[in-house]
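Re: beginner question about structure tokens

> Can someone show what the tokenized structure looks like for a real chain? I only ever see the sequence side.

Sure, here's an example I had lying around. Input first:
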Amino acid sequence: MGWLTVRNVDLALTGPAPREFASSPGVQRTFCGTCGTPLTYRSVKRPLEVDVTLASLEDPAWVAPMDHIWMQDAPAWDTPSDGLPRHPQGRH
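And the corresponding structure tokens:
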């Protein structure tokens, strides 16, 4: 799944408020209460940021990838050839 990371203060959601749940200690996720679409991911490890699913954007084409993260968890067939940096885990 593709994600966009933004500062909390730069995110504005429209429409009905999303449903929220703690998926693991220190992690909050939101989803659409009507259709179940995953929307956001927040971690206490990155308190000023929120990750937004690209598929939930009104127009996902307005963002372009900068890199590939968590490649240590990628399936063997996931071998990006776009020349962007690949990180075994998150960005540092």
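Each token stands for a local structural state, so reading them left to right follows the chain. The chain has a mean pLDDT of 91.
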